[in-house]
Amino acid sequence: MVVEGVYKKMLNNVFSLGKKKIPKKYKRKIKPMLKNSGIYYILNKGEDCKNLKENNVTIKIKNKNTLSQNEINSISMLAESDVVLARRKIDALWINFAWNRLLVLKYCDLYVLENDYSNAIRLLDKAIGRDKHWMLYHRKGLLLRSSGKLNHEVLDNLLKSYNLSKSVKVLIDYVKSSWAINGVTPELIKYCDILYRKKNDLASVDFILLSSIDCDAGRITLAKRKALEALDKDKNVFDKYQSLPVLSLLYTLDNDKYLYCKYAFDVINHIKNNSDILIDNLINAKSFAIVGNGPSELESCNGDLIDSKDFVLRFNAYNTDYPLSIDYGSKTDAWMRAGNYIDLPRRSLNKLSFTIISGYNNIYRSTMGFDDYYDSFISNHPVTIIPNYIYEELIFKLNAMPSAGLAVLYYIYKNIGKIPKDSVFGFSYGNQPKNSSHHYFYNSKSKNHYNHDWNAEAIILAEIIE
To answer: Any residues with CB less than 8 A from the CB of 14 and at least 6 apart, and which?
Structure first.
């Protein structure tokens, strides 16, 4: 290949390469690729790249023949304080250890720190072309999922990694990802059974994971067995993995022995008792407003129109303070939120009719169990979830996790038909960059990366809103 030919030439004569005539094809096509792959400094520097200076700090390569784990670890420590300098150090190491898989993985770590998943995945693709190692497939699968992808490519890479390594850790990641993308399937159960046969290598939380999946699949006897094995390994395992279905199962099987699990049983019943509350409210209301957090209503003066609706639902970190209320209103009847408060404020539930906890298969898949529903449960406040089939249909259409806004609108559409456009506010219909989230308010807790594909969501919104 042309790329490999150029690369070999660089290694043979790093310092004289700049003096030679470089083909136009290299400048036009190859150089941009190399720039993102981590070996740009081989081409760009005519001086000795083993001594790069950044902020008066000199980076030196101790041994050009071997790459020690200490040098890799030092990059991780350096990245915590100075990502740019850490990148320079890897560039220096790359001269002697080009495409070393540890350096490739470390490059990926730096890209992730900058939320640059596309370049991390691109680098892994090039590395896998040279070295089909299980660690590279494993990292690619995890990065694809972290970047927002929920499709067969994630599972294919994780499965390749497992077939090459037979690693328990990789198999656990595959099982988690398969459950998150496809739900309970024969394929998932097959690999859960393979994982269970490696029980000597499993931690207590891994048994709870398998028990939760068995609960979801209706394999109650197996779920009980695995839960008891988890407790044998660690009696405090439920402090680390709050699986509501497993706790509820133990209480159901032995009320007296597992009385401390009763709260999980009660929480699940509390959720199930309110399963139809959203649709019931919409049917009984003469008008409704679903108010997203996009900036599309700014300067619209739609606040009074929104407040005139019989039922108003808002999302996550919504803000109804003046003067934002001029455009977005202040009335709020229901709140759809994430299970935790990492990137949204904690609110009083007293004036709300009910709350919806977002997320696919939240009851079975959440490791935070009781924490997700704590505020609603202790105040006896109605709480519900969006049914699994809604998320499964949307994940299939998007190959990504749907936003809370799309999930609730699609749920309404599946129950009452197309939604009037004058009932939907604050949705940008794809007019924002992928994996970002632009709000009409300032949110100091906002994350840097969101796993949503807004353009793909806009296509579905156009189909369900009239």
So the answer is: 42, 49, 95
| Chain position carrying tokens 């202790």 | 378
Instruction: Give me the helix-helix angle, 204-217 and 168-182, nearest 10°.
Output: 30
Q: Given the structure tokens 């995945």, which residue do they identify?
A: 121
Asked whether the beta carbons of 41 and 92 are under 8 A apart, the reply is: yes
Q: Give the tens place of pLDDT for each residue, 221-261.
A: 999 999 999 999 999 999 999 999 999 999 999 999 999 99
Half-sphere exposure of 50 (CA within 13 A, CB side): 10
The pair of three-digit structure tokens given for residue 98, joined into one six-digit string: 């080009």
- CA proximity to 315, closest of 450, 173, 128, 172: 450
**Residues in CB range of 79: below 8 A, 6 or more apart:** 86, 109, 110, 113
The residue type at 454: W
* Of 441, 460, 444, the residue nearest 294 (C-alpha): 441
pTM of the prediction? 0.83
Q: What is the DSSP string of 322-360?
A: TTHHHHH-S--SEEEE-SS-SSS-----TT-SEEEE-ST
Q: Are 141 and 157 in contact (CB under 8 A)?
A: yes
pLDDT tens track for 68-90: 778 888 888 888 888 888 888 88
